[in-house]
């Protein structure tokens, strides 16, 4: 393929960088436990939590950070979380049982999402706070508490359909939560069931990257809290859900260049950049670009805790223009957050073994077949485009794909290989999975690697802990789902154990 390689290098902070420059460990693990293999880094979760807490500190706010458990099934991550002061947001009976079993006490658990009667019962039985989606669910919980003589249930009312007054900002449609314009009958139901339900506050979760939409929702929540107080209710918290985002890429320039050239490829101005000319939502209609790019904004300098900081600093347009954080503080409301993806930033890697490297006619991109299915590396499913890191089987012979500079998030560098003919030039590849299905592509993007890989090498996909590890994994075709291993550093060395063997006492000295 002509032209310069279009890299999308992953952002690697020091732990992941160190891990990915430990080829012997990575190959030993995949030799023993198979490919694909998921690695989780529990200590990184504790660091990410500290960053969220620091933002609370900056704005003098109290409240809880709840990890959205759905983003990763790992026991190690949950048990590491239990060793901090954070909480967990559970969205199924199984997740609630898992959280209780990991040592999270009910005061540190909140139950969200669609609920079956068993999930509701266990949440109410253990006094976990329940985020109620609808008036129907509220009535169901009230009946359950009465019938089984359960403790008075702590509840949040999840709201949706917020509208900014004056300016035309509408928050996006959601199947969850009660429309804010229907909050009056909901509050009426809370009052009627006050003997069995204790209103803790209101909540929202918006599946958007837009801080403006989220600010509109938070303002809407503040107005409903005022309405509660005027009715004599005593709410004390607002839960703003998750969606703080992750910055996946090291280099914004690479992202700009890739998206520009993708557009040109769709318009036919340059050769295709994807398998089968896929346009990621863009299409060429008689020379005019149509559609919308359906990709995650993979380079996001303001993500995670920084995004929370920005949201809290946002002026509340309909409430005097003061920052949202100031309004929360003034009313002494607790601020609860439920980050999933953002709290798991840099917390995991998925390793896949290269099974086959096939040349194509006319110098087309190589076909690489990996010992993994597309479901095992679900970055593409989430619209995240990011290069894998090549971990050679024999780093001494063919040059390492990545060095480990002391700097945290420096751009990965490519070391020239020592070997003569083993492929030290960049190559374009298409990454296929191991399922007997035309569509089993790990990514439809033409990926550029710093050098030609060989069977037996590993491709390491960084930053997969949030939704891209086990959320979509299946055992289709009797192929194994990836096993999971927890890794941590002790006296400068990487140690590991199976995910379900990890407890905060496992590392020498225990997790801090
Ligand atoms: C209620 C709720 N809270 C939190 C989250 C976590 O979102 P994210 O992983 O984008 O932070 C989700 C995700 O679906 C959710 O539904």
Notes on the structure:
This protein is α/β, with parallel strands linked by helices and about 500 residues long. Helix content is about 25%, strand content about 20%. It has 13 helices and 20 strands. The strands form three sheets. Strands 1, 13, 14, 15, 16, 17, 18, 19 and 20 form a nine-stranded mixed sheet that branches. Helix 3 packs across helix 4 (about 75-80) and helix 9 (about 210-230) packs across helix 11. The termini are far apart. Mean pLDDT is about 90; it is low at about 405-420. Pyridoxal-5'-phosphate binds next to loops.
Note the main attributes of this structure.
nine-stranded mixed beta sheet, 512 residues, binds pyridoxal-5'-phosphate, globular, alpha/beta
Provide a concise account of the structure shown:
By secondary structure, the chain is an alpha/beta fold. The chain is 27% helix and 20% strand.
Give the CA-CA distance, first to last residue: 50 Å
Rounded Rg: 24 Å
Q: Give the beta-strand count.
A: 20
Shape: globular
Helix content: 25-40%
The assembly state of the depicted protein chains is single chain
Approximate strand percentage: 15-25%
Low-confidence stretches: 406-421
Largest sheet: 9 strands, mixed
Number of separate helices:
13
Helix/strand structural class: alpha/beta
């Amino acid at each position: 393929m002509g032209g310069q390689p279009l890299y999308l290098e992953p952002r690697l902070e020091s732990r992941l960088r160190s891990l990915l420059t430990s080829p012997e460990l990575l190959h030993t693990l995949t030799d023993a436990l198979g490919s694909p293999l998921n690695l989780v880094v529990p200590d990184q979760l504790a660091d990410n939590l500290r960053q969220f807490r620091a933002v609370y500190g900056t704005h003098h706010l109290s409240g809880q950070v709840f990890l959205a458990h759905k983003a990763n099934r790992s026991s190690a991550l949950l048990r590491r979380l239990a060793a901090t002061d954070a909480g967990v947001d559970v969205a199924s009976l199984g997740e609630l049982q898992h959280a209780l079993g990991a040592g999270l006490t009910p005061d540190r658990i909140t139950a969200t999402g669609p609920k079956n009667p068993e999930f509701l019962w266990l949440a109410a039985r253990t006094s976990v706070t329940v985020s109620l989606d609808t008036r129907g669910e509220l009535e169901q919980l009230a009946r359950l508490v009465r019938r089984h003589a359960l403790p008075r249930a702590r509840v949040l009312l999840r709201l949706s359909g917020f509208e900014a007054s004056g300016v035309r900002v509408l928050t996006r449609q959601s199947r969850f939560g009660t429309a804010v314009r229907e909050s009056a009958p909901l509050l009426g139901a809370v009052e009627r069931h006050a003997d069995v339900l204790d209103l803790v506050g209101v909540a929202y979760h918006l599946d958007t990257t837009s801080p403006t939409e989220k600010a509109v929702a938070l303002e809407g929540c503040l107005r409903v809290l005022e309405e509660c107080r005027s009715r004599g209710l005593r709410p004390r918290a607002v839960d703003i859900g998750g969606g703080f985002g992750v910055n996946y890429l090291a280099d914004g320039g690479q992202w700009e260049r890739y998206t520009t050239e993708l557009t040109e490829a769709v318009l036919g101005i340059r050769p295709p950049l994807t398998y089968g000319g896929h346009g990621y939502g863009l299409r060429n209609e008689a020379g005019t670009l149509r559609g919308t790019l359906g990709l995650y904004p993979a380079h996001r300098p303001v993500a995670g805790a920084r995004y929370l900081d920005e949201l809290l600093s946002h002026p509340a347009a309909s409430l005097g223009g003061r920052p949202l954080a100031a309004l929360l503080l003034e009313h002494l409301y607790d601020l609860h957050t439920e980050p999933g993806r953002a709290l798991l930033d840099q917390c995991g890697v998925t390793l896949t073994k290269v099974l086959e490297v096939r040349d194509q006619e006319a110098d087309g991109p190589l076909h690489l077949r990996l010992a993994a299915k597309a479901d095992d590396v679900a970055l593409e499913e989430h619209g995240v485009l990011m290069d894998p890191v090549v971990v050679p089987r024999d780093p001494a012979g063919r040059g390492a794909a990545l060095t480990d500079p002391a700097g945290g998030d420096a751009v990965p560098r490519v070391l020239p290989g020592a070997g003569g003919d083993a492929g030290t030039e960049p190559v374009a590849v298409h990454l296929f999975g191991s399922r007997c299905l035309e569509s089993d592509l790990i990514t439809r993007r033409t990926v550029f690697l710093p050098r030609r890989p060989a069977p037996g090498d590993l491709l390491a996909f960084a930053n997969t802990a949030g939704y891209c590890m086990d959320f979509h994994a299946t055992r289709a075709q009797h192929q194994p789902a990836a096993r999971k291993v927890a890794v941590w550093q002790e006296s400068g060395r990487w140690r590991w154990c199976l995910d379900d063997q990890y407890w905060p006492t496992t590392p020498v000295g225990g997790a801090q």
